[in-house]
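note to self — DONT lose this again. spent like an hour looking for the file last time. sequence + predicted structure for the chain T wanted, 376 res
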Amino acid sequence: MKCKAAVLMTSGSQRPYTKSRPVNIEEVELEQPRAGEVLVRIAGAGICHSDIAAVAGVRRLPMPLVLGHECSGFIEDVGEGTQIVKKGDHVVLSYVPSCGRCVYCASGVPGLCDPGRRANRQGILLSGGTRFQLKGKEIHHHLGVSAFSEYTVVPENSAISVSKDVPIEELALLGCAVLVGIGSVLNSARLKAGSTAAVFGCGGVGLNVIQGAKLAGAKQIIAVDVVESKLSMATSLGATETVNASALDAVDTIRKLTGGIGVDYSFEAVGNTEVMAQSFCATRNGGETILVGITSPEDRLIVPSSWLVDEERKIKGSYMGSAVPRRDIPMLVDLYASGRIKIGEIVTRHLKLEQVNEGLEALAKGEVARQIIDIG
């Protein structure tokens, strides 16, 4: 079948993306789902910093590819032998395909699935190969999803059925920003009620870290960013104090706000090693730093090593919010439906597929938290 998709031809384009226009809107050929796969009509797709990392070449992926990984949609067709989802289901897609058999899947951490991550690095589906073509040439998949397309094909394990009683477009953010942010608190940190927390970076993921900390019962949540509008959003979502790091020393200010000792938990949601180090330095003795932002493989984090032993401070990585998507995404839908978490308030604006380059530039500038591309 033919469909319209946003294709990233090469990585490394220079900003502003509104001028270099790294993503082309093309009519592509999409193969029908094979055994164990499903065809999804995309409803809405969020633009994430991981998309910018692919455009900039920070994440080295095979080109060309259909960009996007955070989305929701409808099951239009199913391949032979599918058992988990059916035609007509509303779904949120998971960007790490889970094989269900490796040691990580068996241990309850499908985000670390070996075959799934290997397939993502190669730009193919878990069952092998690609399903997109452009003028007879192979087009790769972005993180097993390729959300910036009218239609996509994914393994059925990547499609999580959700309630039909909630707006499907906004549920796109459950595929990454909400799952990662709230998951980093509930699954990775397992933050204890009554604790103190700092969140460095108030974009789509960081704002959901704040929501997660509020859900978990943190008594103090300090939001750190350099954009006042994002700090205002942080307050509306549960931050008890804010720090504009462009005007104040974030670590010193956090210590003053916590009686001189630092926070119990500090989350870095920027993807910058200097900010990661600040996040670590903002914790108390015995505190824990959870790193959520993605950096380049060449980047190195430098922190006082003695603090890890002498002061028992901890650093933990959190990929995909340490989530089990089939368990956690329906839970998040229930929390949203009951009003305990917010999604629409995180969305800065809605775009058309043809505006993807403008959306990427706005995110790179730090002007927006999350943007949703309304596709169908």
